[in-house]
Amino acid sequence: MQHPVIEFYLGKRKSLEGFSLEEMWNMSDLIFSDGYFWIPWLLPITPFKNKEVVVGRKWNKRVPIFSQADADVFAQNEDIQKCYLKSIDRIFAYFELEREGSLVFPTKVLQDRSFWLHPAGHETKKISRLIHSLSVCGQFELAVNLQKLAISLGTEKGYIQDKTLGIWQKII
After folding, report:
1. 72: which residues sit within 8 A by CB, 6+ positions away?
2. At 117, is the secondary structure helix, strand, or coil?
């Protein structure tokens, strides 16, 4: 039996909430903003802990989390990687980012705005998870480039706390 997220990316199952991968790609930005159920399915992670950074399933024990072996299978499967990058592109669009290969850029809309992430909510935690997921799921170079851009945007355009910037610096 494969990990539930691997089966999800291969189209063999739906999320615990009953959504397929394609249905998640087509969700509105409002759902991406207010909902959290999509995060463990589109952005799988392995446990990661150090003194200042904790990424994992602190609140929801039902959320599937990868072992290193699961992450390796995910990273090495070409079909999964194509779907994963489509998920990443959808999430980037929500955050007003765009990708070319392993490079990440702010969209024109974001370039013209005075802020990046809203000071309320969990947007910065979503970025942390996104960076960590990329780093363990076969897209390390993309993770590094997103990390650099997030720190830059967080400094230039935001209400990002120093603690969060520190987490982003240490997450990979």
Report:
1. none
2. coil
